[in-house]
Amino acid sequence: NGCDSIITLTLEVLPISEETLSESICSGEEYDFNGEILSTSGTYVDTLVSVNGCDSILTLTLEVLPVSEESLAESICSGEDYDFNGDILSTSGTYVDTLVAVNGCDSILTLTLEVLPISEESLTESICSGEDYDFNGDILTIPGTYVDTLVAANGCDSIITLTLEVLPIS
Questions:
Q1: DSSP calls for 50-61
Q2: Whole-angstrom Cα distance, residue 3 to residue 110?
Q3: How far, in Å, CA of 111 to CA of 75, rounded?
Q4: Which of 94, 83, 86, 91 is nearest to 116 (CA)?
Q5: Per-residue pLDDT tens over the stretch 100-138
Q6: CB half-sphere exposure, 40, CA atoms < 13 A
């Protein structure tokens, strides 16, 4: 109609929502970041729509923590036991134990255990009456069975059994 028309606008600027997350997972695990499956360390950003219709920016800093793995090689002598974190072992083989490391992830310990043999040897010797026999430093003159235990090259016992016969003089 040719007259002035006055329009009053009240403008409200709504804030953009920003949120930062820091998360960690163990190596081999995955993290679901709003439908995106992540398995490597890094910084990830996702833009969503907030309840007020504006952008909502979500920033994720993801750290992938390492899984600790250690291998041991041990040996014991036959007849001995090996304590592997509470498991008492006495046979050769490879054993695995999973523990929780300081960072909360798995710590995998692999043990290769070797059971070394004990060496056993039997001897039969004869001497004449009145003679003596040197059995590793022991001087013997009486018939009988004698046992001596030495340390073999592998570090285990070496058991020598001597049967000594004393022959009469005729």
A1: -TTSSEEEEEEE
A2: 91
A3: 10
A4: 91
A5: 988 899 999 999 999 999 999 999 999 999 999 999 999
A6: 1
- Among 64, 80, 71, smallest CA distance to 117 is for 80
Smallest Cα–Cα separation from 30: which of 22, 40, 44? 40
Q: Residue 162 forms beta bridges with which residues?
A: 123, 146
* Band of residue 5 on the pLDDT scale cut at 50, 70, 90: confident
Query: What would the two tokens of residue 90 be?
Result: 């006495």
- With H, G, I as helix, E, B as strand and everything else as coil, classify residue 93: strand
Which contiguous run of DSSP H or E holds residue 26?
A: strand 17-26
CA–CA separation, 92 and 70 (whole Å): 19
CA 7 to CA 144: how far, in whole Å? Answer: 126
Inter-residue contact 164 to 125 (CB < 8 Å): yes
How far apart CA 118 and CA 124 sit, in angstroms, is 20
Tokens 């793995």 locate to 69
CA dist., res. 165 & res. 152, Å (int): 27
**The residue type at 78:** S
**Residue 116: φ, ψ to 5°:** -85, 145
